Amino acid sequence: MLIGNVCTQQVVCTHRNATATEAAQLMRQFHVGTLVVADGEQDSVTPVGLVTDRDIAVGVVAAQMDPDEVLVSEIMNPTLVTAQEDDDVYETIQKMGLKGVRRLPVVDSEGKLVGIVSEDDLLEQLSREMTALAHISHRQQNKEAILRD
Fold first, then answer.
1. In degrees rounded to 5, what are phi and psi of residue 115?
2. pLDDT at 43
3. 7: exposed, middle or buried (C-beta count within 10 Å: 0-12, 13-18, 19+)?
4. pLDDT for 94-103, tens place per residue?
5. What b/e string do you get for 39-67 counting C-beta neighbours within 10 Å, with b at 16 or more?
6. N or C: which end of the chain has fewer CB within 10 A?
């Protein structure tokens, strides 16, 4: 299965010059813990980073910095790891493990944002696949029982 079919396509984005306060307000408004920091407008944005609620809590609040003065570009993870929409789910899982990240922006061949995939998204997808696999044995046993009767 391709990661483009698993990712969440409704992504909440912000820009580099947003303040930590503005980022936190977006997180609250949309009930998310991660924002994609992006360049561009609406349907044509290129991800340049991620900022999480933890970045704000640890990097701003715990450091007693003024969240109205700290820009997202100052606290976002500067190294962005992405997945291509046509990457396989298992390739993406390996990439996340190697890079030690729980979320990846998903981009098209031109580097434009098409979604975001999280560890939770992948766990949900894999659990559906495992459940389907488990049902195969059960169905096969039922079919065999019917044929023998």
1. 175, -170
2. 75
3. buried
4. 999 999 999 9
5. eeeeeebbbbbbbbeebbeebbeeeeeeb
6. C
